[in-house]
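[Meeting: bench + compute handoff]

Bench side (C.D.) handed over the final construct sequence. Compute side (W.E.) agreed to return the predicted structure before the next meeting so the bench team could plan truncations. Sequence as handed over:
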Amino acid sequence: MTIILNVFGKEFVSKRPITLDLESPTLRDVFVTLQMDHEGPWNRFLKKDLSLHEGCIVLVNGRSIASLEKLDTVIHDGDEITFTVLVAGG
């Protein structure tokens, strides 16, 4: 399965495809695989317990995981996962 990982942070912007050897994975499975097998800026957003650092959010295909099934969200081939920081303005 290939997913697109986007990372938008204060010091970096990254967009790249990542191929993972997972069948019918959840976001939890993706996070575990990323932490174990793939170095990248997304590790700045994830804690070891798979929770997010304060002020960070994750989107799957443009939707916050808080409005989906959180870590139990099923990920499909071609999905886009975005790690970013909360931004406020006015």
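W.E. noted at the follow-up: The two ends are 40 Å apart (CA to CA). C.D. will use this when planning the next construct.
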